[in-house]
Design a protein that fits this description.
Elements (H helix, E strand, L loop, with lengths): L3 H11 L11 H4 L2 H8 L6 H9 L5 H11 L13 H14 L3 H10 L2 H11 L8
Length: 131
């Protein structure tokens, strides 16, 4: 059974034809909308993603072949997703300093946990906490 990362790695990096594997149900598991959504986040694949969204009626096999043969080999998904605690801390840094997302991410890498706790204390506006 393939996961989303396997499809994206085959399209972007390895160019491995997952159709030739012994798994006969791969076509049922292939999510074309999600794949197109992921590929639409990059300037060099957005046109291919848009093309497949316009031709959504094509079979999953044809869509996969189009993407695997037309997108250039490149590592696109290198970064990790932020965890929930990092997202909360990111919001705290943004509110305290008035920074954008990118600048707040840079600052978040520099700040220690104690400094983030101080920022949280400075942002408390009062009120009651309900349990």
């Amino acid at each position: 059974m393939y996961e989303l990362k396997d499809y994206l790695k085959a399209i972007n990096e390895s160019k491995e034809n997952l159709l030739d594997t012994p798994d006969p149900t791969w076509a049922k598991k292939y999510p074309p909308f999600v794949i197109n959504r992921c590929l639409s986040m990059f300037y060099d694949t957005i046109m291919h993603s848009n093309e497949m969204n316009g031709l959504h009626f094509l079979s999953k096999r044809m869509q996969f072949h189009y993407l695997i043969n037309s997108i250039r080999k490149k590592r696109r998904f290198g970064g990790r997703w932020l965890s929930k605690t990092k997202l909360k801390n990111l919001d705290i840094v943004k509110r305290y300093y008035g920074y954008s997302n990118t600048k707040a991410k840079e600052v978040l890498n520099i700040l220690t946990d104690d400094q983030i706790e101080r920022l949280k204390l400075n942002l408390i506006q009062g009120g009651r906490k309900f349990k």
